Amino acid sequence: MKLEKIIAVRTDKTIYLDGNKVVKVMGPSYPASDVLSEALNLACVNETPLKTPKLLEVTQVDGKWAIVWEYIKGKTLAEIMDKDKANFEKNMSRFVDIQLEMHRYKTTRLPLLTEKLQRKIGACGLDASSRYELSTRLASLPKHTKLCHGDFNPSNIIITDKDEAYIIDWSHATQGNASADAAQTYLLFWLSGNIDAAGAYLEKFCKKSDTAKQYVQKWVSIISASQLVKAKPAEKEFLLHWANVVEYE
To answer: Which Pfam families does this chain map to (predicted)?
Structure first.
């Protein structure tokens, strides 16, 4: 294994390109259970007809856990959207179509999104009344079992030379309500500073899925609170604002 070319560095993990493989090496204190859970997520989505990188190996590199998967050559949809602004509507439409296709599938071995959100609300740092309100609201919303990505944004879509769309980075995958997944994507556009894209995304998702915009926005405060657990300092003020919105206005 030649770990010479670094393609990304994240908190407590480094991602290398090794020929036709991607090697994600975790930090020395990274829990083995989290490594195996992430690998299981990828193995589960590999069993669907979706185009996803194939899980190749879970191993250790210099005493640190690593996950190895197939390298998908191409450009991210984010790169394409950034360079081809004239076709923003077309590219956003494709982005939403890919997400809706993903939501058609169910993988019952993935964690339940509702349970994950309840745990994060409990640890989000808001006061007890706010946590109770958010937890009660979450319990009242429908619990589906659709495949949810948890970090679905244009940077996690690879478009190959054959114009095939691969979905990558399944570390946050769960089974749950598709509108919660959409609320997460909406927030990701906001957090990246692309507010116009956030609005355009929400319009297209709701129109194509025949979902009321207010229903997706019911999830926004819950998702925002859950994101507070590991939020960057610059994101906290924004997330606190959304987490404290009781109902969409």
So the answer is: APH
**What b-and-e string marks burial along 3-35, b requiring 16 or more CB atoms within 10 Å of the CB?**
eeeeeeeeeebbbbbeeebbbbbbeeebeeeeb
d(CA 228, CA 84): 33
The answer to whether 184 touches 223, Cβ cutoff 8 Å, is: yes
- Whether 202 shows a pLDDT value over 80: the answer reads yes
- For 113-170, write each residue's pLDDT tens digit: 999 999 999 998 889 998 999 999 999 999 899 999 999 999 999 999 999 999 999 9
Structurally, how many domains does the chain consist of? 2
Using CA atoms, how far apart are residues 148 and 105, in angstroms rounded to an integer?
9
Name the β-bridge partners of 15. 8, 24
Report the alpha-carbon distance of residue 236 to residue 124 in Å, rounded: 11
- The tokens for 43 are 């193995």
CA end-to-end distance (rounded Å), the chain: 54
Check which CATH number belongs to the domain holding 151 and give it: 3.90.1200.10
The one-letter amino acid code at 16 reads Y
Read off the tokens for 14.
């480094």
Instruction: Round the average pLDDT of the chain to a whole number and report it.
Output: 93
> Are residues 141 and 38 located together in one domain of the fold?
no
